[in-house]
Amino acid sequence: xATVCAGNPTNEIRGCDKYGCGYYGAPRRNGKGKHRxxxxxxxxxxxxxxxxxxxxxxxxxxxxxxxxxxxxxxISGSGFCVKLLCIHPVRYNGEISKGQVLGxxxxxxxxxxxxxxxxxxxxxxxSDPTSNL
Length: 133
Known about the structure:
Elements: E1 16-17, E2 20-21, E3 38-41, E4 47-49, E5 54-57, E6 72-77, E7 80-85, E8 87-89, E9 94-96, E10 101-105, H1 108-111, E11 118-123
Antiparallel strand pairs: 1-2, 3-11, 4-10, 5-6, 5-9, 6-7, 7-11, 8-10
C-alpha cells in the first residue's frame, strides 16, 4: 500500500491517548468490544491518498450523527476492500489510482479535543489491515 496521509510517510499507527488506542484489537472504553480497524496518524486538514488502486463507493458514515468527522469512503480493488473514515473524499465513486489524492482529513480535534488525529482504516471483512500498512 502507498502512504495514506501527507506528513506520515510510514503510515504510523496512533498510539494510546485519553480516548483509547489505535491498534487493531484495542479494547474500547464504552465496552463495545474491540477496535476492528487501525488508526493511521493524520493531521487535521492533511491530504489523504489512496492506499491502492480501485473503485470508490460511498459516502460511508461511522457516527451517523452528522458531526464534523462523520464522512468517509470505501475502496475496493487490487484484492483489497477498505473503508477510510474521518476523511472528506474528493468524490464518492469512480476509479482511483494508488497514491492519487483521495481527499482531506476532517477536523477531528473539533469533535475529540486532545485525541491523536487519525484516519480510521477498516477492512470490509473486519480482518486486521495492519500488515498492509
